[in-house]
Design brief:
This protein is an alpha+beta fold. The chain folds into 3 domains: 102 residues, conserved putative lor/sdh protein from methanococcus maripaludis s2 fold, CATH 2.40.420; 78 residues, Efflux pump adaptor protein, beta barrel domain (Elongation Factor Tu (Ef-tu), domain 3, Beta Barrel); 76 residues, Helix Hairpins. It is 24% helix and 39% strand. The strands form 4 sheets. Strands 2-9-12-11-10-13 form a 6-stranded antiparallel β-barrel. Strands 6-5-3-8 form a 4-stranded antiparallel sheet, with no helix packed on it. α2 runs antiparallel to α3. The C terminus is likely disordered.
């Protein structure tokens, strides 16, 4: 035989063998379990409550009773305005109040005497009316003096700047001897026992967010969605506020954090290893085995958690290729190798795993 013809026959036989060769793969059947659909977000921490400690009177600072970062109780004294002028004003108001009280007693007695005389027809109606007018004016003067006294007492008490809420004192802005005006802030008190995480959620995802949904911040702190803004910002994102417990002050104010909002929980869902998934031109797909042949199947990922994926197109009856899918094409004959540890199988409940993907099935 012509050597050239023999060579061509050999190549043809080799190519034919390659075309009809079976591909070795590893495959598993999905197992049922619980999985969460979660949305990744980033945000900034905010104190649960924050309030300014302000002066309610004008005067120089005489005393500072707190340092930044210290914990305070509601009503605790933080600082003091020099109170000498206010103490003098209180004594003056007290003296004026005493005078009006005494005058009222005398005018009341005088009115009673005039009533008796009028009943005996010893004085005219005009005289009785005059005594009544004097009494009424004296009573009004006593009320005004009482109000002046109460205000002077309040001003003296408000020389003490007190904590408006319980929490931690921060941002002190005054020094001893500095003049303070009414309404000027001494600092701020923040409640950090709980914090809010203000996240920005794009309009494409906002309809999935509901008040009361559970959240996980920094992989370990449970939270709950407590507020959803009804108006988008300039970037078409909505502010969503997540309330989170803050043990041991792990979170400080205005920190950048990451978290996950649980959109849905699927129980007893058919879950297959995420390593089975391949992507091409924006489409996700897996290969399944049926009657010894591989079939490419497009999937829409519902949830991914840890090494597990849930897609409605895959059931527990399917056999999903986890190793060897990169050499497969639709309709190829395959040989499924027995599990020997070469496949990263993980049969634990997927809800116990980290490495969560976003709600769109992609890794954050």
């Amino acid at each position: 035989m012509n050597p050239r013809i023999a060579s061509l026959i050999t190549v043809f036989v080799a190519l034919t063998s390659m075309a009809t060769a079976q591909i070795n793969v590893n495959a598993v059947k999905p197992k049922t379990g619980n999985i969460h659909q979660r949305l990744l977000f980033t945000g900034e921490t905010r104190p649960l409550i924050e309030s300014y400690a302000a002066s309610d009177v004008t005067g120089p600072v005489a005393q500072i009773m707190i340092e930044e970062g210290q914990k305070v109780t509601q009503g605790q004294a933080l600082g003091k305005i020099d109170d000498i002028r206010f103490a003098i004003a209180l004594r003056q108001a007290e003296a004026a109040l005493d005078r009006t009280k005494q005058q009222l007693i005398e005018d009341e007695k005088d009115l009673e005497r005039n009533k008796t005389l009028f009943d005996r027809k010893a004085i005219t109606q005009k005289a009785l009316d005059m005594a009544t007018t004097v009494y009424i004016k004296s009573k009004s003067a006593q009320k005004q003096a009482q109000a002046d006294y109460d205000k002077a007492k309040l001003d003296l008490d408000r020389c003490i700047i007190r904590a408006p809420i319980a929490g931690y004192f921060i941002d002190r802005s005054i020094e001893i001897g500095q003049a303070m005006a009414r309404g000027q802030n001494m600092g701020k008190v923040i409640d950090l026992d709980h914090v809010y995480v203000d996240a920005r959620i794009p309009e494409s995802e906002i309809r999935k967010i509901k008040i009361g949904q559970e959240s996980l911040v920094e992989d370990k702190f449970a939270g709950i969605v407590s507020f959803i803004n009804l108006y988008a910002d300039s970037s078409r994102s909505f502010k969503v506020r997540v309330k989170v417990a803050n043990p041991d002050l792990y979170f400080k104010g205005n920190m950048f954090v990451k978290g996950l909002i649980t959109l849905a929980t699927y129980e007893e869902a058919p879950l297959f290893p995420s390593q089975a998934i391949r992507n091409f031109r924006g489409e996700s797909f897996v290969f399944t085995i049926k009657d010894g042949k591989s079939y490419r199947r497009k999937i829409n990922i519902i949830a991914q958690e840890g090494n597990f994926t849930y897609a409605k197109e895959i059931s527990t009856d399917d056999e999903v290729v986890t190793v060897g899918q990169d050499t497969l094409a639709d309709g190829m004959e395959v040989v499924v190798r027995p599990a020997n540890g070469s496949v990263a199988t993980d049969t634990a409940n997927p809800s116990e795993h980290s490495g969560i993907r976003g709600s769109n099935g992609q890794r954050p």
